[in-house]
Amino acid sequence: MIWPEGGERRLREIVESRANLIFDAEGVLCSDIDSPEAAPGAAELLAELRSMGKRTFVLTNVTRKSRAEVIEALDALGLGFRPEEVMTAGYLAALYVKSRKPGARCFAISEGGLIEDLISLGLRPVSNRPVDFVVIGSNRKLSYWELNFAMELAIEGVEVVCAGASPIFRGEFMGRRGVFMGEEAFAEAIRHVVGCGITYVGKPHRLIFELAFGQWGVGAGDSAMVGDGLRSDVGGARAVGMPAILITKGEEFRFEELPKEWVPDVAVGSLAEMLEGLRSARS
Fold first, then answer.
1. What domains appear along the chain, each with residue ranges and CATH number?
2. What DSSP string runs through 88-112?
3. In sequence order, which residues have a C-beta less than 8 Å from that of residue 280 and are 6 or more positions away?
4. Which residues contact 74 (CB under 8 A, 6 or more apart)?
5. Residues 6+ apart with CB under 8 A from 76
6. Within a 10 A sphere around the Cβ of 103, how many other Cβ atoms?
7. How would you write the pLDDT of the chain (283 residues) with one tens digit per residue?
């Protein structure tokens, strides 16, 4: 079911008026990036949009996998994205750091993907001082000493960059599927203790969109967001002035009770339903 009533027309208006459709990855195009399976209708919807002359992109808060790994995973699902069309929070955070100080020494909280992104842009992951930036990603093996060292560096005035902005995420790790604490939880723990600012390169914050737009050569005025997160995707789109299409995955929402910035322009149950709605509106 498409929300609101008559939403097929609004869906068509958004898609036809925008040159670019930006998709979240996990929970939208695929199940999760740890053991990815393509969402039903994903390949067909993307093909339909491209046949209409639309450009399609991916913008994800994922940091536990490198951008190269995310590109490889999406390619294996047959979704047809070119490498330059896929941007991750880890890669864009590395890009931000590089713009501030090429070759910077970075203490990274990471499972490995974020570290790969830092290295890919000529930055230097380190575990001892001197440190130019603390860069925080998701890490399901995080130790007390890593978090404490990041705190010490923040006290010393080192800028803390959080790659992504997820308080929790779903995935699979060492044979366990479930919900895990995300990078925002670690960053906010440091902020709570130190009182420092955090530079967030993750949805819903503006910076990740601005960096991605710069890489793609597009803008908010000619783009729309397709995602499953009220805060991250809808709120992020609203923050930069983009319309938002919410994928509900069958969950029911009382949109009238939500903060205004979390209310999507259109809500659809799935990508398959979005495709059906587009075709219905065009017939």
1. 7-60+205-282 (3.40.50.1000), 99-201 (3.40.50.1000)
2. EHHHHHHHHHHHHSTT-EEEEE-SS
3. 8
4. 25, 29, 30, 36, 58, 81, 86
5. 36
6. 11
7. 789 988 899 999 999 999 999 999 999 999 999 999 999 999 999 999 999 999 999 999 999 999 999 999 999 999 999 999 999 999 999 999 999 999 999 999 999 999 999 999 999 999 999 999 999 999 999 999 999 999 999 999 999 999 999 999 999 999 999 999 999 999 999 999 999 999 999 999 999 999 999 999 999 999 999 999 999 999 999 999 999 999 999 899 999 999 999 999 999 999 999 999 998 766 5
Whether the CA torsion 80, 85, 89, 93 is positive or negative: it is positive
List the structure tokens of 22.
Answer: 């930006």
What the block records as the tokens of 193 is: 């203790």
**Tokens encoding 168:** 């929790």
Its pTM stands at: 0.97
* Residue carrying structure tokens 């990041």: 150
